[in-house]
Design a protein that fits this description.
Layout lengths: L10 H4 L3 H22 L1 H10 L20 H6 L13 E7 L7 E6 H17 L7 E4 L7 H13 L2 E4 L5 H11 L3 E4 L1 H13 L12 E5 L5 H11 L2 E8 L4 E7 L6 E3 L4 E6 L13 E7 L10 E7 L1 E2 L11 E2 L4 E2 L4 E3 L2 E3 L1 H9 L4 E12 L2 E10 L1 H4 L3 H19 L4 E5 L14 E3 L4
Parallel strand pairs: 3-4, 3-5, 5-6, 6-7, 18-21, 19-20
Antiparallel strand pairs: 1-2, 7-8, 8-9, 9-14, 10-11, 11-12, 12-15, 13-14, 16-17, 18-19
The structure holds 5'-O-[hydroxy(phenylacetyl)phosphoryl]adenosine.
The site of 5'-O-[hydroxy(phenylacetyl)phosphoryl]adenosine (DLL) has 21 residues, from helix 6, strand 7, strand 8 and strand 12.
Length: 439
């Protein structure tokens, strides 16, 4: 069992006093605002419109005077018009596909790649990774930040990296077994799929595999899903968060206490706002997460609205870090479904499904409009055991799920139990909602 010291990569930064941190953040924020104002015409115009000058921003308290940035800005100024460094200083491009049209891209200077690698080294260390470990990376390696992020972090620690990227599940498992991989990095939905395939191949985690921990993120998941993955793979499953625009994975990470994700606050400032009014909300209240990067030089982001919903806390964590923590992402302001006027988050339904015996955590939500009324169908896979069970028993499971969803979400749904493996598996981010009203 590693000692506590081995679980914190950079104690000088991760455990600094909150006052020290505030002072550090204020100084870096002022520098970043100046850089942005001088180099990014779009943001200068936006600050001028608000009557804010760089010299007005001296501390974290002044952040609220700055204008927001949005994903649409990355589209409108695609690909290079938000760069705050000369084009020749950009050494890497990453991007995310998005749901419509062009990808959004972010440019990284050598400094930005270093900052991000440090964030990921902290992330992996917090999950127990040391130089002795073998890190199996099943996040895609490419424009998506997942694969490169995990690779760079493991490299920084000096661990052995197995850069598998996504796909070819059986071969992934064979490599994991043969090499004795100890840390797994992939999406939580893929971790579940890997876990199930491992069992189908007749392998037993702990006996045939040496996995001890995983850093799972890039998509929303629940506590119930964590327990399921921990059981399937025999690992400590830690949540990790990030986004292309801010750095990539590692913006925030869970330690083995598993009580929220520590935000790398010496590199980013986090705020929670009311998504409707843009007003800052106090710690503890649920709202939209907003990030300002304070050490990035390529494409700094000022008050970037993530549309992710969560809470923040600065209560001290038992691990010794002083970095504030964000709770699980409970939804997105833009993937919240409004069904017959009721706000529904897919995570609420996942919680019900994962805690129900007899169904597997593979589901699809299908929203439609029939006779001018919204409908929601929840398709969920039966487990192999339950599939062979009596009709009466299956019907009881279906009724149970329908009632649970009604009591948690407040609306009636059509629950359909589908055969095992009939819902397409994802090797990256899972797609779980089909909204036919938008098609
Ligand atoms: O998903 C970066 C990443 C890679 C994070 C690997 C963690 C692990 P994007 O493709 O730009 O970047 O997508 C960012 O994914 O705004 C969230 O909506 C969602 N997301 C990321 N991590 C989590 C998480 C990467 N742990 C968007 N829980 C974000 C819930 C997450 N949602």
């Amino acid at each position: 069992m590693p000692t506590r010291e081995h679980l914190i990569y950079n104690p000088a930064r991760e455990c600094m006093s909150r006052d020290e941190l505030r002072a550090w953040q204020g100084a870096r924020l002022a520098e970043t605002v100046k850089r942005e104002y001088e180099n990014v015409p779009m943001y200068r115009a936006r600050m001028d419109d608000k009557g804010v000058k760089p010299e007005d921003i001296r501390s974290v308290e002044d952040l609220k005077y700055l204008p927001f940035m949005e994903k649409t800005d990355l589209r409108d100024y695609y690909p290079f018009d938000l760069l705050a460094s000369p084009r020749s200083e950009i050494v890497r491009i990453h991007g995310s596909s998005g749901t419509t049209g062009k990808p959004i891209v972010s440019g990284y200077t050598a400094n930005d790649v270093e900052v991000w690698s440090e964030m990921m080294a902290r992330t992996l260390t917090a999950a127990g990774c040391t130089k002795e470990d073998i890190v199996h990376v099943s996040y895609g390696l490419g424009l998506f930040t997942g694969g490169f992020g995990a690779y760079q972090g493991a490299n920084r620690i000096g661990a052995m990296v197995v850069p598998m990227s996504s796909g070819n599940t059986q071969r992934q498992i064979m490599m994991m077994k043969d090499l004795g991989s100890t840390i797994l990095c992939c999406t939580p939905s893929y971790a579940t799929y890997l876990g199930e395939t491992i069992r189908e191949m007749g392998l037993v985690p702990g006996r045939d595999l040496k996995l001890k921990a995983g850093c799972f993120g890039a998509e929303p998941w629940t506590e119930e899903m964590r327990l399921r993955i921990e059981e399937l793979l025999g690992v400590d499953a830690c949540d990790i968060y990030g986004l292309t625009e801010i750095a990539g994975p590692g913006v925030a990470f869970e330690c083995l206490e598993k009580h929220g994700m520590h935000i790398n606050e010496d590199h980013v400032i986090a705020e929670i706002i009311n998504p409707a009014t843009g007003e800052q909300l106090p710690y503890g209240e649920s709202g939209e997460l907003v990030f300002t990067t304070i050490t990035k030089t390529g494409m700094p982001m000022m008050r970037y609205r993530t549309h992710d919903i969560c809470t923040l806390t600065d209560e001290q964590c038992a691990c010794g870090r002083t970095l504030a923590r964000m709770g699980r992402i409970t939804g997105r302001t833009d993937d919240m479904l409004v069904i017959r006027g009721v706000n529904v988050f897919p995570s609420q339904i996942e919680t019900v499904l994962v805690s129900t015996h007899g169904v597997a955590p593979h589901y699809m939500l299908i929203v439609d409009r029939v006779n001018s009324s919204d409908t929601l169908e929840v398709q969920v896979e039966l487990t192999e055991d339950m599939f062979g069970d009596t009709i009466g028993h299956m019907e009881a499971v279906r009724k149970h799920i329908t009632n649970q969803i009604k009591s948690v979400v407040g609306i009636a749904t059509k629950v359909s139990l589908v055969p095992p493996k009939s819902i397409p598996r994802s090797e990256g981010k899972a797609k779980r909602v089909i909204d036919k009203r938008k098609l």
